[in-house]
Write a structure and sequence with these properties.
CATH architecture: 3-Layer(aba) Sandwich
Helix content: 40-55%
Number of domains: 1
Largest sheet: 6 strands, parallel
Strand content: 5-15%
CATH superfamily: Deoxyhypusine synthase
Order of helices and strands: HHEHEHEHEEHEHHEHEHEHHEHEHHH
Strand order of the largest sheet: 7-2-1-9-10-11
Distance between the termini: 65 Å
């Protein structure tokens, strides 16, 4: 009689590969959830018909996981679009500019670090001057003529990626930032709260000096919705989301489905695949800890696809390098979708579907009635 998958533990020997480690030695609890996430990504998500979105929250790039894990996945065609905190993209350019970040103890004397003008991110240190010089780099870039208009964050990051690529090439450093890799691969990078980072702070300061760069947050909402809508246009098309951490990027990538269903009245069922690595508990009611089942009630996750949703309660800095190594080894690479280049096309298709929904469901009248009822 079988009660599930038989646990068949074997001694770990030298020369163990990442594929053997994941498939045969992550037995139970969150180790098993990590195994399931790796296998789901490699076997189902990494298929040509699936559009893969990923979120980045928490200080991942200072650890080096941007260039170590996210960049290889982008270049392998295994990440099609990204929602990130601005901080992750900002701190990723420090190494682009030739600055060093150092591992230290999380129990350092912060008063002494302050006196020495050293910045600490838990167990990572860098000089305060790194911030000032990174700000100068952004300041010079965003004063350029191509930045002098209102734009979505994907366009902003694409333009910045041209500069980070040039800087990395000019300095001949052995480092590739997420901005550079996404620029080269046509992967759109969105920031769900563009004012909540040093990049946004620089945009705000420049605005006070007459710079014309402004954020078009409505464009971001519609573009990301258009990406998910486009992913489902063919009968076999599917959408996958991989959430590292939680926070605002998690909601922003998931809200694309309620935007289609609830706001636009376009028939949809939800994202098809969902993987999250988090340390947030669901019982506190926060978004970061909300389960796929709860998300299903909002229309964010297709209820028929709940078996293909996995939450692993594990630090992303542990899970990401293991998952990236496993998927690159097992799945290899896919052709780049270059969604950035297709933004206008996808927006036009979304507009057409929205117009059709307005006609067929009388959505406009519904909104008018709702407005009248509140007066």
């Amino acid at each position: 009689m079988s009660y599930g998958v038989k646990l068949d533990p074997q001694p770990i020997a030298s020369g163990l590969t990442i594929r053997e480690l994941v498939d045969h030695h992550l037995y139970a609890y969150n180790a098993a959830r990590l195994r399931e996430a790796c296998q789901l990504f490699a076997q189902k998500i990494a298929q040509p018909e699936v559009t893969i979105g990923i979120t980045l929250s928490g200080a991942l790039t200072p650890t080096g996981l941007g260039t170590a894990a996210i960049v290889p996945l982008i270049r392998a065609g295994l990440i099609d679009w990204v929602v990130s905190t601005g901080a992750n993209l900002y701190h990723d350019i420090h190494r682009t500019l030739g600055f060093d970040l150092w591992g230290t103890t999380p129990f350092a004397n912060d008063r002494e670090l302050r006196e020495k003008k050293l910045i600490r991110i838990y167990d990572i240190l860098f000089e305060q001057d790194v911030l000032f010089k990174s700000d100068q780099f952004l300041y010079q870039c965003m004063r350029g003529p191509e930045f002098q208009h209102t734009m979505g964050t994907a366009e902003l990051h694409y333009l910045l990626g041209r500069y980070t690529k040039a800087r990395e090439k000019a300095t001949q450093i052995d480092y590739v930032s997420i901005l550079t890799a996404a620029h080269e691969a046509g992967v759109p990078l969105y920031t769900s709260s563009p004012g909540d980072s040093t990049i946004g702070m620089n945009v705000a300061a420049l605005a006070m000096m007459g710079n014309k760069l402004r954020f078009d947050v409505e464009r971001d909402v519609n573009e990301t919705t258009a990406i998910v809508h486009d992913a489902k246009q063919s009968p076999e098309g599917k959408s996958a989301v991989i959430v590292l951490g939680g926070g605002s990027p998690k909601n922003f990538i998931l809200q694309t489905e309620p935007q289609l269903q609830e706001i636009m009245g376009i028939s949809e069922k939800g994202h098809d695949y969902y993987i999250q690595f988090t340390d947030a508990r669901p019982d506190t009611g926060g978004l970061s800890g909300a389960t796929p089942s709860e998300a299903m009630t909002w229309g964010k996750i297709d209820p028929d696809q709940l078996p293909d949703t996995i939450v692993c309660y594990c630090d992303s800095t542990i899970a990401l390098p293991i998952m990236a190594a496993y998927v690159l080894d097992v799945a290899g690479s896919r052709p780049l979708k270059r969604l950035y280049d297709r933004r206008d096309e996808m927006m036009d298709t979304l507009q057409q579907s929205y117009n059709e929904a307005l006609k067929s469901h009388n959505t406009a009248d519904h909104f008018a009635d709702s407005t009248d009822s509140t007066e």
